[in-house]
Amino acid sequence: MRILVQKFGGTSVANLECMKKVREKVLAARAKGFKVVVVLSAMSGETNRLLGLAKEWSTSPDPAEIDVLVSTGEQVSVALFSMLMKDAGVNSRSLLGYQVPVSTDCDHGNARILGINQDKLQALLEEHDVLAVAGFQGCTDEARVTTLGRGGSDTSAVAFAAALGCECEIYTDVEGVYTTDPNIVSTARKMDRVSYDEMLEMASMGAKVLQIRSVEFAKKYKVPVLVRSTFSDAPGTLVTQEDSRMEAVLVSGIAYDKDQARVTLRDVPDVPGIASKLFGPLAAGGVVVDMIVQNPSRENKTDMTFTVPRGDLDKTLELMAEIQKETNAAEVLHDLHVCKVSAIGVGMRNHSGVAAQAFDALRRENINILMISTSEIKITCLIEEKYTELAVRTLHDAFGLGKE
Ligand code: ADP
Ligand code: ASP
Ligand code: MG
């Protein structure tokens, strides 16, 4: 039995007309002899609408109930799509996360997939030619519904492909993975191939075309992922292991992430253990701290500045208020109008001077850098949010990434 996983995102299932395009892609795979596991997202805007309802109805909505609520978006998509397939004479059925089941941990809103019942899937695929599977959702051992974090249908799709040992196609509203977001830089160039490591950095740095965990999964289980468009027949981008066919470039892409907040605790005592006192409670509270800078301020005092996802700012400020009292720190400051821009490329491993080139490019546009962090294959600068597009375009040009 030849199996293929095809995933379609929110814009691809936004209405009947789009869903008919999806059906064409699935029928094309059927014509090539594949049994198709079709992983669907909620119709575009629906997950946000449902999250908005939860906020409107409750002052502090129960995370487990939010998951029951938002997972309905994907339920609507798979039911409607399965109807469309049946209209075309295809033997299809819908499947929700708990019916597979897609087993996850209990981290509501950000659950991790622990396993997928492969035998059940194989058996269902013997009986059906197409399975329309709800992305983004799973269930715990106690049969509670969970969701996998925003953009989580990508991860569902790769996990299904890993479980079934097949390839995975991710269909979206752009023709593949580009050197930067093609919706903000018109000269962005589509890449034919990109390595798991580069894609991982691009996703972590904000390129939402693939959810980070989907790339981690693909890398771990060596699943080739082809990103392509629902609305054209362009060949797309293959996300795969690094190989000689990949372009030998220094920087392969620029990513940006506006989902950032900067927090500063001013004038904390500059003594051993202070960082652990600050960051311990944040880690325990599930807040992922990203960039960190410590700057001596006055005698025996230091300023600690760090970034967190915007959604975690309130929790972070609550924790910092306690720590401020405990440590006698002068004040807690925060700023929501910041953005992280990153240059990514495996070529950086063997070259120096890339950071200097990036800083120089930003300087020429008078863009002030608030924080810097680097890894073996990326350079990240935190800047004021209003300069995001200019900074992304500037770095994209500086590293010669545009179309000729
Ligand atoms: P879907 O609903 O299909 O999951 P998403 O909106 O999650 O789609 O992801 C696709 C979007 O990712 C594109 O419309 C594009 O704006 C954005 N994007 C950001 N960076 C990149 C990149 N480097 N290459 C391609 N798309 C990118
Ligand atoms: N519907 C979910 C979201 O909007 C999952 C996804 O689209 O991948 O985040
Ligand atoms: Mg997505």
TrEMBL record:
One Gene Ontology term from the biological process aspect of the record: lysine biosynthetic process via diaminopimelate
Q: Kinase as a keyword? A: yes
Which GO cellular component term is one of those annotated? cytosol
- Binding, ATP: K7, F8, G9, G10, T172, D173, Y178, K208, V209
UniProt key word Ion transport: no
MF annotations from Gene Ontology? aspartate kinase activity; ATP binding
Query: Keywords, A to Z?
Result: Amino-acid biosynthesis, ATP-binding, Kinase, Lysine biosynthesis, Nucleotide-binding, Transferase
Show the catalytic activity.
L-aspartate + ATP = 4-phospho-L-aspartate + ADP
Which amino acid positions bind substrate, per UniProt? T47, E74
- List the Pfam families: AA_kinase, ACT, ACT_9
Checking Gene3D superfamilies in the record gives: Acetylglutamate kinase-like, VC0802-like
EC main class here is transferase
What are the EC numbers? Answer: 2.7.2.4
Pathway it acts in? Amino-acid biosynthesis; L-methionine biosynthesis via de novo pathway; L-homoserine from L-aspartate: step 1/3; Amino-acid biosynthesis; L-threonine biosynthesis; L-threonine from L-aspartate: step 1/5; Amino-acid biosynthesis; L-lysine biosynthesis via DAP pathway; (S)-tetrahydrodipicolinate from L-aspartate: step 1/4
* Superkingdom as given in the UniProt entry: Bacteria
Write down the NCBIfam families for this protein, in alphabetical order: asp_kin_monofn, asp_kinases, PRK06635.1-2, PRK06635.1-4
Q: What is this protein called?
A: Aspartokinase
- Tell me the organism: Halodesulfovibrio spirochaetisodalis
